[in-house]
Specification:
Structural class: mainly beta
Distance between the termini: 43 Å
Number of strands: 16
Largest sheet: 12 strands, antiparallel, barrel
Radius of gyration: 20 Å
């Protein structure tokens, strides 16, 4: 085995043995499972930035092609998270024969507010979060007057939600997260109005064996996001500073993202 192969295997093993406990969703550029929101929150003063490849099935109906996004997200207080996400658009130019290329982007804000912390009243009480993504929608009528609506125009990723999360831990095995939410919008091509449920299981088999170290922190996820069934997994590398997520929208269509995380402390 040459030196390059040895180096490659060393990097791969180091990645797999890293702590894997990130909880960001790269489709929206905020905290959650894959598509559905949860009541999980990042640590105080957490800063996340990242980029994702999105299969067409993971996007609103205004996209009929695979695309990309990038985002910046800051947890200002342990109870308040704000994000800014851009998703790339393809536009055809007449003098180029309507060749469609990535020439523009949709921009939206995300806000999450924790209203109840897990275990505040009793150990069994869950965490509760209110949130919204892309809350404002602007469009032009035939008369040229700008109007605000939540069914047409921009605001493609719009949703409002109430999310509840509860965790259960087993020593030397892992942690189970159970999540439920009610998601709402009035979008014509990305309509959400109903319950969402999901689970994640983060392995923590604190053993000194090779397989135990490889499995430690592997985060497996499955959900119904009020529209589709999705499944995926997440890895966190270098003490959560580099995070990779893989999603199968509808349990078939592959999307993936990478996110960098740091803490302003």
């Amino acid at each position: 085995m040459n030196q390059w192969k040895k180096t490659g295997w060393t990097i791969l093993i180091a990645m797999l043995m890293s702590n894997m406990s990130a909880k960001a969703q790269y489709v929206y550029g905020t905290t959650g499972l894959l598509h559905m929101p949860t009541a999980d929150m990042q640590e105080d003063k957490t800063v996340m930035c990242g980029a994702s490849y999105l299969d067409v099935e993971a996007t609103p109906g205004e996209w009929d092609y695979n695309t990309w996004n990038y985002y910046l997200n800051v947890t200002i207080f342990p109870w308040l998270e704000i994000g800014y996400t851009c998703t790339l658009f393809k536009i055809g130019i007449p003098n180029e024969g309507y060749s469609y290329k990535f020439r523009n982007q949709d921009r939206h804000f995300d806000i999450r507010l924790r209203v109840w912390k897990e275990g505040w009243y009793r150990d069994w009480t869950p965490q509760v979060v209110l949130g919204t993504d892309d809350p404002g929608t602007t469009s032009f009528t035939d008369s040229g007057v700008t109007s605000t609506t939540s069914s047409v125009g921009n605001g493609y990723w719009s949703r409002f939600y109430l999310a509840v999360t509860k965790h259960f831990a087993w020593q030397n095995i892992g942690e189970l997260g159970i999540h439920a939410a009610y998601v709402y919008n009035r979008r014509r091509y990305y309509h959400l109005n109903g319950p969402a449920v999901g689970v994640n299981f983060r392995l923590r088999p604190m053993t000194d064996t090779f397989l135990g170290k490889v499995a430690n922190g592997l985060n497996l996820m499955a959900e119904y996001d009020a529209r589709t069934m999705n499944c995926g997994l997440m890895y966190s590398l270098w003490k959560e500073h580099i995070n990779v997520q893989i999603e199968l929208t509808g349990c078939r269509h592959l999307s993936a993202g990478i996110m960098l995380k740091t803490w302003l402390k």
